[in-house]
Amino acid sequence: MNATVKITKIGNSAGIVLPKELLAHLNASVGEMLSVVTTPGGIELRAEEPDFDAQMAAAREVMGRRKQALRELAK
What is the reported pTM? Predict the structure, then answer.
């Protein structure tokens, strides 16, 4: 899906309005959070995964405990 959106001034910030077709494609609705990921070609919007923060916390904890092993594997 390709869509053109206009950047609008919102206070001291800027925002865009997402058409309902784009929201449907993202399986998102008003009030939900979206993840914004930078890519070599621009940005990517994704519906936020509900347990992403918990998964990242678990990964950071394991990486902290296994720091030396990860350094050795990186060689």
Answer: 0.55
Task: Please say whether the beta carbons of 15 and 7 come within 8 A.
Answer: yes
Q: d(Cα 70, Cα 73) in Å, to the nearest integer?
A: 5
- The amino acid that residue 36 corresponds to is V
Read off the pLDDT band of 11 (50, 70, 90). very high
The three-state secondary structure class of 31 is coil
With beta carbons less than 8 A apart as the criterion, state whether 75 and 66 touch.
no
26: closest CA among 10, 6, 51, 3? 3
Residue 70 confidence (pLDDT) above 80: yes
